[in-house]
Design brief:
Length: 402
């Protein structure tokens, strides 16, 4: 029996030597690793095709690595990784907005960026800042975004595009009287992503100047209340309840040529072009008492390496590959997304977005940000429909800061 046990132990030792470490792929005789399939979560309608084409390009130079796209929408990824990752069904790499960073890090779902100093040099400064949490960088920024003022050149001339919100309101009043079946201006009034701009006068910023103050939201101070009261006054030029001003409704109005001005982002450029709309893009109007364009949210879409992957090295390398000029150009061509690196793309609309980006600020990435969205969305809808501004913003602050 002792001889048999010794023999079995020797056989197991040999087998372990051949099997490598854990679930890692064993090196082949040539020194390269065995076949690796990286599962990547991304959204459809453009980003999916980007991952597929980028994956094929990567496999040409890394024949042992295959990229598998799985549809998990970017807004759902942070919640889904918390369920699927620990259960062993998660991805190796997934796309998520940077404002989910704090939630992902504190949950232990992502690993740090490999060679963060080098990555920071390659990407735009706002991108590396947005992906830094408590002094450490996580993820790889694959695109940047903000929104701006789209205008239909067949309904408003470039010279008439308002520079201030007061002048926008005056122009729209006249336009609406002359064009009863069209809208001079339209926006999703129930989305905090857009309505945040009205809280930003006097350099007021969500969670403070650096977006890290967890003691208060800065959504119910004097500057924010003043701005949201002005926002509420715009109901006089868009006499429609918040429930009828969703993003889908607004998209359709501008795309059909029935709105002169609309706040949206690069993601809509292709659909508006395909619809034959003759449009331009300008920075947002300045808030009352301000000179510069109103401050918008800037967002970073990042690829995060899952902490549950067995292939973190390969996943990080593929994420880094997505930052190359060739891949950034490909992503722009397929999705219209603003590159995360300093590279030229052929778009007559980019100047308007870049100008607005000068006055944008990154969405905070602290965990408290997860409570902002539904809370601010609901407050915005209520305020638009006539609720007391101070009470709504006080309740908003109380729900976020607990």
């Amino acid at each position: 029996m002792k001889k048999m046990a010794a023999l079995l132990a020797a056989v197991c030792a040999v087998l372990i030597g051949f099997s490598g470490c854990g679930k890692k792929d064993a090196p082949s005789a040539s020194g390269s690793k065995g076949k690796v399939t990286l599962t990547v979560w991304e959204s459809v309608n453009g980003p999916d095709e980007f991952i597929r084409q980028a994956g094929l390009a990567y496999t040409k130079t890394h024949p042992n690595v295959e990229i598998e796209f799985v549809n998990v929408e970017v807004g759902d990824a942070a919640g889904q990784i918390a369920l699927d990752g620990p259960a062993g069904f998660g991805p190796d790499l997934f796309a998520a907005p940077h404002d989910k960073l704090g939630e992902l890090v504190t949950g232990g779902h992502v690993v740090e960026t490999v060679n963060p100093a080098e990555v920071s040099k390659e990407v735009l400064g706002t991108c590396s800042q947005a992906l830094t949490y408590e002094g450490k960088m996580f993820g790889y920024p694959i695109s940047a975004e903000t929104y701006a003022l789209f205008y239909n050149k067949d309904l408003i001339s470039e010279n008439d595009v308002p520079k201030t919100w007061e002048s926008l309101a005056e122009w729209v009043k006249i336009f609406n009287i002359r064009n009863p079946r069209k809208s001079g201006f339209i926006m999703d009034v129930g989305s905090g992503y857009y309505t945040i701009i009205f809280t930003t006068s006097e350099n007021n910023r969500l969670f403070g100047s650096f977006g890290t103050d967890t003691t208060k939201s800065y959504l119910n101070n004097a500057a924010a209340v003043k701005g949201m009261k002005f926002f509420q006054s715009l109901h006089s030029i868009i006499d429609v309840p918040a429930s009828d001003l969703s993003t889908a409704v607004c998209d359709a109005a501008f795309q059909s040529g029935n709105a002169a001005m609309y706040i949206t982002g690069l993601w809509n450029v292709k659909s508006f072009e395909d619809a034959g709309i003759n449009f331009g893009v300008a920075p947002l109007p300045a808030l009352p008492g301000e000179e510069n364009p109103a401050a918008s949210f800037s967002g970073i879409r990042a690829m995060f390496v899952s902490s549950y992957t067995d292939h973190s090295e390969e996943a990080a390398d593929f994420a880094r590959f997505l930052l190359t000029p060739e891949m950034q150009q490909l992503r722009f061509n397929l999705t219209g997304a603003m590159p995360s690196i300093d590279t030229n793309v052929n778009s007559k609309y980019m100047a308007g977005f870049l100008k607005q980006l000068e006055f944008a600020f990154p969405m905070p990435s602290i965990p408290e940000m997860s409570a902002f969205w539904d809370t601010m969305d609901n407050a915005s809808k209520n305020i638009w429909d006539g609720a007391d501004v101070q009470k709504e913003l006080d309740a908003c602050n109380a729900a976020i800061i607990k």
